[in-house]
Structure formats: structure tokens, C-alpha cells
Design brief:
mainly beta, single chain
Length: 127
């Protein structure tokens, strides 16, 4: 069973770029058919899928966030990263990384579609 750990700043100023990294242990992120997602949970809102990087390096983004989102990976460190640009206070949330078991990343996501969650990291957008 793999384990995931998010890291990154807990406070980001408005209009800046939020950057988080997920370190995966126990399984190479290049494992065939594995996908790795970023998800967030904001106060008073449901789970929101942000985007994913597949085992082959392909990336997939939530259309509502696509213009501001970039997901990359470093296979030598077994990490994948999130960058969310032009943040506003509405981007304040707990951010999670997880292994995504969906066959179609654009299908509606529920918590059951993600396994091996990281513990989550609170990111607050504020000046």
C-alpha cells in the first residue's frame, strides 16, 4: 500500500501561485495504469477534483480550473506537483493528493474514486 504526503506553504497571497508537492512512497508513480490526483475540500463545499497525472505523464484537469492549473511530476523523486495560479480567497481549502482509480478522469468524482490519500494540507489565501 502506497503512502502519500503533501507539502507546501500554508499561506498564499491573493493573485499569487499556490504550489504543492506530493511525495509517494511504496509504489512508483510510473506504475502502469496508476493515476495521481489533486483534490480539495473547501469550507461549506464538497470535494472538488483539481486534476491528475497518469502513469505515463499525461495530465487531466478540471475544466473549471484548467486555465489556472498545472500538474507536473518528477519521477526521480517519485513526486507530483500542483501549481494553481492567480489564487483568490475562494481557493482556500484543504488540499489532498491521492491515487485515482477512475478509468475516466473527467467522470464525476466521489471520495470512493481515490485511494491512499495523503493527510491533507490546509492552504489559506490571504494577504
Amino acid at each position: 500500500q502506497e503512502t502519500l504526503q503533501e507539502s507546501g506553504p500554508g499561506l498564499v497571497a491573493p493573485s499569487q501561485t499556490l504550489s504543492l508537492t506530493c511525495t509517494v512512497s511504496g509504489a512508483p508513480i510510473t506504475t502502469s495504469n496508476y493515476g495521481w490526483s489533486w483534490i480539495r475540500l473547501a469550507p461549506g463545499k464538497g470535494l472538488e477534483w483539481i486534476g491528475a497525472v497518469a502513469y505515463d505523464g499525461s495530465t487531466y484537469y478540471n475544466p473549471s480550473l484548467k486555465s489556472r492549473t498545472s500538474i507536473s511530476r518528477d519521477t526521480s523523486k517519485n513526486q507530483f506537483s500542483l501549481q494553481l495560479s492567480s489564487v483568490t480567497p475562494e481557493d482556500t481549502a484543504i488540499y489532498f493528493c491521492a491515487r485515482d482509480v477512475r478509468a475516466n478522469y473527467y467522470s464525476a468524482a466521489t471520495s470512493r474514486d481515490f485511494v491512499s490519500w495523503g493527510q491533507g494540507t490546509q492552504v489559506t489565501v490571504s494577504s
